[in-house]
Each structure stands twice: as C-alpha cells, then as structure tokens.
Amino acid sequence: MNVRRVDALDPGERAALFDRDAGVDAVRDDARDIVDRVRSEGDVAIRDLSREIDGVEVGNVDVTDRVERAAEAIDEETRAAIEDAAANIREFHERQLPEDWTEDFGGRELGRRFRPLDTVGVYAPGGTAAYPSSVLMGVIPAVVAGVEHVAVATPPAEEINPVTLAAADIAGADAVYQVGGAQAVAALAYGTETINAVQKVVGPGNQWVTAAKAEVRGDVEIDFLAGPSEVLVIADGTADPSLVAADLVAQAEHGETSSVVAVTDDEATAEAVAAAVDDHATGRDREETIRAALDNDASGVFLARSMPEAVLFAEEYAPEHLSIQADDAEALLDRIPSAGSAFLGPYSPVAAGDYATGTNHVLPTNGKARVTGGLSVDTFLRSTTVQRLSEDALGDLRDTVTTLANAEGLEAHAHSVDARLEAGAVDGDED
Ligand code: NAD
Question: Among 48, 208, 321, which residue has the most ligand 1 atoms within 8 Å of its CB, making it the best to mutate?
C-alpha cells in the first residue's frame, strides 16, 4: 500500500473516498428486475434465481425445521461462543429499552409509549462468508423489543451453515428461509407462497441486497442501507502500526468491495502501517479478497499535516467503524459525530465488536453514518404520543388553537374546541 497525503488528494480521489457507493448504483437495475420477478412469480422465482445465481437447487425454502437439529449438532465450543456473544448482545440491547412515560404539563397530561412491530425480517448475509453473528445482531434486538414474528433469510446452500441455523435458534428467530440477495429482500417485503411479508426488513448484505432494500423502501420499512463493510483508523505516533494494519486487513477480509482506511499525522506511523498491511495480508486464508479490498479507491493509508486534519478527514468519510488508536481518544471522538460504531484504544479491535462486546455490528455504510446510527432496539419499536387535557387546560389553549385553526382556514377545527367549552357540553366530565 502506498501512503497518500490528505492535502494532495485531487477532486476525483476525494469523491471516491467521501461519496463512495461501493457498487450499489451499478446493480440497481439488476436488483429491480429481481424484485419484480419475485413479486410476480413468488416461490417459483426464488427457486429459479437460487439455481441461476447461487447454483443451488432449493427444495424447501422454509428450513425452520432444521434449526433445532443444527443447534444440537454444533460442537460445544461453538455453541458456548454463540451463547456468550448472544448474552452480551442481549444485555446491551436490554439497556436500550425505553420506558413509557406520562407527565403533567399544567393540566396537559402528555406522554409517550413504545410498542414493538409485529413482524420483521432479518437478512443474514452468507455469500462469500457465513455470518451467524449477523443473525444474532439482527434477531436479538427485535426479540428484546418484543417483536412477535422474527424471520431470518440467508442464502441457499447444499448444506446451510449449521452455525447460522444454531444462531437463529439461540437468538430466538421463529422462521428461517434459505434465500439470498435481492430475491430475499423482495420475498420478505412482498411475501410469497412460503414466506410471509413482514413490516420491516433489516440487515446488511452485498450490493444486490443493499440495492434491493433501496428498491423496496416505501412499500416496506427498512433499517438503512448497510452495504460492504468499512473501517477507518485514526492513529498518532503512539499507535502500534502492526495492530492498526491487523484491523485494516481484518476488515478487508469481508469482501472485495470493503473499504479500509488509516489516517495519521505521523509520517513514520503511516509508512509503518502501509508496510505492515502487506505483511499481515500475506498468507491469510482470504488473501485474494483482502488484496482486492486494499486496492479499492475508497481504501488507503493517508498522512495528514495535523491531528485536526486527520479528524476532519474521518468526519468527511463518516465510516461504519471508527477506530481511534491515539492519545485522548475520547476527545478526538467528540469531534467526529459521523461514525457507526467507535472503538477506542489499543485493546478494542473492531473484531471484538463484530462478535461479542454486545454492541450491534449492523451499521450504516457509504457515509450514511452522517444521518443514522446502527441497528438497535429502537429499530423495532413504534411510538405513540398520548394526551389527556383537563377542561381548564383546554380553556387555556382555546385562543391559541382557534386562532391558528382559523388562520389555516380550518374553521371546523376551531369549532371542535369551542363546542367542548360551552357550559355542560361534555357528559361525565371528570374535572
Ligand atoms: P450476501 O448474502 O450479502 O450476498 C449473497 C447473495 O448475493 C447471493 O445469495 C446472491 O443471491 C446475490 N448475488 C451474488 N452475485 C450476484 C449477481 N451477480 N447478481 C445478482 N445477485 C447476486 O453475502 P456476501 O456477498 O458475502 O456479502 C456480505 C456483505 O455484507 C459483505 O460485503 C460484508 O462486508 C457485508 N456486511 C456488512 C455488515 C454491516 O453491518 N454493514 C455486517 C456484516 C456483513
């Protein structure tokens, strides 16, 4: 990897870094065709697309009955790891559950209550790597929120990864379907003979998954566009270049379209990270994928003239994962509002959050961290505001409401207030 200077980036390079789309736009038309096919042909389209794209003859799309068996069949060590991760994820998400509240604002009793969605679909990627961890990250917050029906869709295979199935069981999913890519998103959004349509589709995936989510948005709720993974590491002269490089290589392992970035104000650190990346990549199981991701236009090692310039670079990038391996990491984080999840200090590798710290790893990519956070319990809740007014409180509001109603030409609105305040107008008035 070469080191590039932040102040020497040309407009094209800046656009590749800060306006990245990771190939999603390029497959929008393909994804739309797939969505339309599933919408009109249902299960037949799922089977045909699974044969054409995944090379798998799918018998039963619904594999829920295999889940418990898989959970029993996996080895003890793997089961313990899933249960341990699941417990941490559950604990962190339970902490997010909001409480209903009511407060008296001088006769206006106002409140907010939260109720879970009824049905959600969680996409668990499984193309180039299996992601049982994404099953935990999607299903557990929904179950904690109280969602009754949580379905999982994951790409078909001759034998679906038993760890993915076991994760669905341990997390509390009540249906698992073998269908991947854009066809999975369409099936969850619109339903087929086998798959029930859900109210909200969540979860990360590759370009086709992300493009399909953009396509169905509006007909069904989605979480946000969570595409190919990204990491940005801010390092200063105190960082261990080898650990920074290890984090970049780990993220690059996700897929060829993943983006990995380090930015530092220290020239020696920049050179050392660039060299160490190469060392860490060599001989890895997925070296080819890693090298392709390292070569992305949105990847690289960057030298800033100062820490403020590095911080500005990070904020403009708005990464999915932000790692800060520098002095006073909290102060630097304070100046970067746009990041999906932050990892502070040398002992907080992104991989720990990917699996087991308890935070969610389904996070906004492609700069969407500028406007949204990752999956959480909130994703699966709807809220209702509630008000009860006393006669006096309505009297206090009378002039304000009727004046505004009349100003908007909505005279009947004004009347609905006046009618109540005429003497004795309300039967059984409690006040
Ligand atoms: P995937 O399940 O997302 O995609 C596999 C599916 O893509 C296949 O089943 C197939 O249907 C479809 N597909 C593949 N090639 C196609 C083609 N040419 N035309 C139409 N459809 C095609 O699995 P993946 O490919 O391994 O990608 C997973 C992605 O999810 C990675 O990029 C990873 O970085 C990302 N990820 C993101 C997060 C996050 O929170 N943002 C978390 C985990 C994983």
Answer: 208
Helix ranges (DSSP H) in 96-180: 132-145, 162-171
Of the candidates 257, 341, 64, the one whose C-alpha atom is nearest the C-alpha of residue 176 is: 64
Beta pairing class for 341-344 and 321-325? parallel
For every residue of 12-65, DSSP letters joined together read HHHHHHHS--TTTGGGHHHHHHHHHHHHHHTHHHHHHHIIIII----S-SB-GG
Report the alpha-carbon distance of residue 103 to residue 114 in Å, rounded.
15
- Rounded to whole angstroms, the Cα distance separating 64 from 120 reads 16
Inter-helix orientation angle 267-281/287-294, to 10°: 150
**Is residue 149 annotated as part of the catalytic site, yes or no?**
no
CA 22 to chain centre: 16
The tokens describing 214, both together, are 């953009």
Place of tokens 């991701």: 293
Please give the backbone phi and psi of residue 269, each rounded to the nearest 5 degrees, phi first: -65, -45
Active-site option among 93, 254, 280, 321 = 321
Mean pLDDT by runs of 10 across the 431 residues of the chain is 95 94 89 98 97 95 91 92 98 98 96 98 86 96 98 93 94 97 98 98 93 96 90 98 98 93 98 97 96 95 98 98 97 98 97 97 94 97 98 96 98 97 67 46
CA dihedral 322, 323, 329, 331 (to 10 degrees): -10
- What type of residue sits at position 389? L
CA distance 83 to 78: 9
R_g of the chain, CA atoms, integer Å: 25
Q: Which two tokens stand for residue 119?
A: 């049905």
First to last CA, the chain: 75
Q: Is 352 in contact with 251 (CB distance < 8 Å)?
A: no
Residue showing tokens 């997390």: 171
Distance (angstroms) between ligand 1 centre and the Cα of 412 equals 54
Residue nearest atom 43 of ligand 1, based on CA coordinates: 204
Q: What per-residue confidence (pLDDT) applies to 37?
A: 98
Distance CA 327, CA 307 (A): 11
Q: What would the two tokens of residue 248 be?
A: 């970049």
CA angle (257 as vertex; 54, 325 as ends), nearest 5: 135
Q: Is 320 a catalytic residue?
A: yes
Q: What is the largest CA-CA distance in the chain?
A: 86
